[in-house]
Amino acid sequence: MGVLRYVAKRLGLYLAVLFIGLTITFMLPRLMPTNPVDGYIGQLQSRANGTLTSEAIAEMRTNLEQLYGLNGNIFSQYASYMKRVLIDFDFGPSFTYYPQPVSAMILNALPWTLGLLLTATFIAWVLGNMVGLVAGYFHKQRAASILEFLGILLYPIPYYILAVTVLLLLAYVFPIFPLSPTFPVGQLTPEKIGMILYNSLLPGITLVLAGFGWNILSMKALAVATTEEPYVVYARLKGASNWTRMMSYVFRNALLPQVTALALSLGMVFNGALLTEMIFSYPGIGLIMRTAATGGDYNVLYGAITLSIIAVATAGLVIDLIYPLLDPRIRHK
Amino acid sequence: MARLGRSLMASLLLGSLMTTSAFAQGAMTDVGTPRAETLIVQTFDGRAANPSAQNPLNSYAIWRGFRELGWGYLWEMDTATGKSYPEMADGMPEVLNPEHTQFRIKIRPGITWSDGVEFTTDDIIFSLDTAFKYREKLTNVASVTVYLKSYKKIDDYTFEVETVNPSYDLTTRLGVYTWGTPFNWVPKHVFEPLGDDVVSFQNAPPVTLGPYKVKEFDPNGFWQLWELRDDWQKSSWGNLGTPKPKFILYKDFGAEETRALAFVQNQYDVDTFMSPDSIDAAKARNPKVETFSSTFPYHDMNDACSYGVYINQQRAPYDMPEVRWALALSLNLSQVGISAMSGQFKAAALPLPDTPITGPIFYQANLQALQDLTIGDGYKPFDADFSTTLAETLKEQGIDPALLPTGDAVNAGFGMGWWKHDPAEAEKLLASVGINKGADGFYALPDGSPWVIEFVIPGDWNKVLQRLGFSIADSWRQAGFNVNARQVDNGEYTTVQNTNARNELQINWSNTCVYNSNWLGNWNQFRESNILPADSTNPLSGNYARITDPEVLDLVAEGAALPLDDPKFVENGQKIAMQIASEMQIINLMNIPTTIPTNSTYWTNFPKQDNFYAAPYTWWSSFKKTVVTIEPTGQQ
């Protein structure tokens, strides 16, 4: 019964977060000082060298307001938005790229974002935690300081600088990777998969390096503190080996906050990596979101932010649900 | 699992070898075409978010070569002279009535679509029928639906149209004005079977009229590859000359840092807006990288628009010409241009660019009037020596004199003059309308309340204007104006531009676009119907410069009823330019500088200052002239 109540409470919280998040998502773009209709007309006017007549612009404005569904009052728009998003999971057409459906834009970009960021985040987490654990457990040894130095060195470097440095080194000075990748099109073959992986390695390396430092430092701090805990001292006095103490006593106890951080960062993956996309010409959802935010493309913002809210909230829910499995203290409560 | 790992590793190595060997040998591009036969250009807008949208009746991925290589036009524009010429039309339109509303147009027989079907008036009539039938659902057809009253087919190669109003600019309304046309023809045999689905049809890859067809495109929006048609001579501009590259690749090479490196590595041939610093760095590492001009200023100044400070004259205190003039005379353009553009700019005092085409028509014609112009108590604000002084200043600042223009080239390079920098005169003008400096050193409004000028400028999305904007604000602050230079994203920029209640001062270019003697295309927006109350929150549909001067409005209305080649029409344009300048309704600044560096490793004979056979832009429809004029170097 206790477990059921725990799960029900967490699920209720999850649904409340989703509802509030979606409502805020509906309101926020409308508070932005942009007008998607003007943005679209501006694009067409620019393409026509400013020669669109006032009559043509007025006709376009009337039609676009109708096509975008911006004519009704805000409450009817909100009701229609919630119905479309929650029941049909349909975000309508993009305003900036009308009549391109938002779902097609997101579905095209998302696999690239997830493929790169999930892999890089996970590798950075595993490597960083391993290095941090060793550095923390053996913190009194000189070699541990060198490992910690690696974390201290990498963590504060702004991502942009790190990415450009890696690009310069590995694509220009030593041209091992392409400066700007060209991803193959058409049916996937082993050869094309190889090219995709090869072209994704450079952005992947920079993301791993960027995430690596924080994981080292945080795990090291947790491991140092845990190493001093009485139960670890007791295990040592009982004759448990270094390996057993490090993995079963220190790592397991230091892991909880790191798992939370991993789950939340996995949720954030859905926001994309704008700088990575821009610097490495990598496809993904970051640039689409940025364009949508600057152009007042409500529907694309709804689509991307809704996905992000669902991802982060679901990650939170999963953590809440697996905590009892990882931490017996919660289970026993 | 181990087998999977081995397979992935093998694929990875194979991919690595394929890509690196392509560049190492210099023989193939990374899309599998011979580099020596492929012209590679940086895309204008970077990455496209809608690469598969290729239906020109809606908004589409225009910057992937469609306008230059894919579509066909009835009339194209020669960007070296500013003159229209027939492309698919067989001559210029025949005028059928004295009101200039009915026209007969003939098209050249023998033009075929890229799938081999002949282009006839059936395609034209179908395109127009579709535009009118779905005018509420197609988003890129309003230019023609409000322009044409009726149309009819006479035979397969002849059709007639009737315009709503007298029209003297049919060739640029149904054809190209400067860089493109607002309406494109679509193939009846492809679109007709779609029925109502035409409104959401993606049209990818499209059946095209130009000598190139889409071979492949990246669904992620980074590149698009065009291939020369075997029957290119039957295409819309197959009569222009032999297109030299077999393939043309439009590709986004990423952020400017990456682009500069890729340019050094000869990975592509023509860039767009690379900054002067990056070009210098690239040139230092690769002598094949070339700027538009070999002497200072190095960059291209032939864009169809000019940058200016647009003033909302409907709001106090900007409704007083003394205030507008004070702002102009307090702006140290020489200092602004040196700090924001490294001195690489061409000053333009009239509200349009000063190019080899517009210079003689508008600037030379008004030069005496500019020199004779007086304001206030007889003060002459024009500085005809602006360019000579600027060249001297640059010399003093260490620019090699051998790189600076001399003689007539000074004015050709830096412009025919600009307004004097005279903050003392500005102070006098302001004092005459009760505006004086307060205890804080800044000008206060006539009632003594603080005067904070809101000056809206683009954020990172237009770095040239962003830098210019900050520099101008700095110049004004030094003169005693309390200026808040507010950077905005492009969405908000457009909203500020369109909304009176939110607009005060804005750096802009949208109403200073005149490419040749036809000023009407852009200045036609200066009309009574495009004026809203000063506090209106409704969007404007034009006239973003907020011209309310009846003299200008009358000249525009009169000009709209005149043939374009009537001397009176041109005279009206000259008068409009002078009237806007003399009342300082727009503080026009300079031509829009576009750098357009090229790399001559694989292709040569690009348009340059001393070889100006076309505007050098790869995203203008006139790029076709470049495509038939460049030559391969033989580099493999």
CATH topology of the largest domain in chain A: MetI-like fold
Q: Number of folding domains of chain A?
A: 2
Q: What is the number of helices of chain A?
A: 14
Low-confidence stretches of chain B: 1-25
Beta strands of chain B, count: 23
Rounded average pLDDT of chain B = 93
The CATH architecture of the largest domain in chain A: Orthogonal Bundle
The level 1 CATH classification of the largest domain in chain A is: Mainly Alpha
* Percent in helix of chain A: over 70%
Oligomer: heterodimer
Radius of gyration of chain A: 25 Å
Question: Could you write a compact summary of the structure shown?
Answer:
Chain A has 333 residues and is mainly alpha-helical. Chain A has helices at 2-31, 36-47, 54-68, 74-88, 102-137, 142-154, 159-173, 190-227, 230-238, 242-268, 274-280, 285-295, 298-326, 328-332. The mean pLDDT of chain A is 86.
Q: Could you walk me through the main structural features you see in this protein, from its secondary elements to its overall organization?
A:
The complex is a heterodimer of chains A (333) and B (636). Chain A is mainly α. Chain A has two domains: 17-88, no CATH class; 102-330, MetI-like (MetI-like fold), CATH 1.10.3720. In chain A, 79% of the residues lie in helices and 0% in strands. Chain A is built from 14 helices and no strands. In chain A, helix 1 (2-31) packs antiparallel against helix 13 (298-326) and helix 12 packs across helix 13 (298-326). The radius of gyration of chain A is 25 Å and the shape is globular. The two termini of chain A are 13 Å apart. Chain B is an alpha+beta fold and 636 residues long. Helix content of chain B is 31%, strand content 15%. Chain B is built from 20 helices and 23 strands. In chain B, the strands form eight sheets. Chain B has a five-stranded mixed β-sheet. In chain B, strands 1-10-9-8 form a four-stranded mixed β-sheet, with no helix packed on it. Chain B has a four-stranded antiparallel β-sheet with strand order 4-5-7-6, with helices on one face. The radius of gyration of chain B is 26 Å and the shape is globular. The two termini of chain B are 43 Å apart. The interface between A and B is large, with 80 and 91 residues.
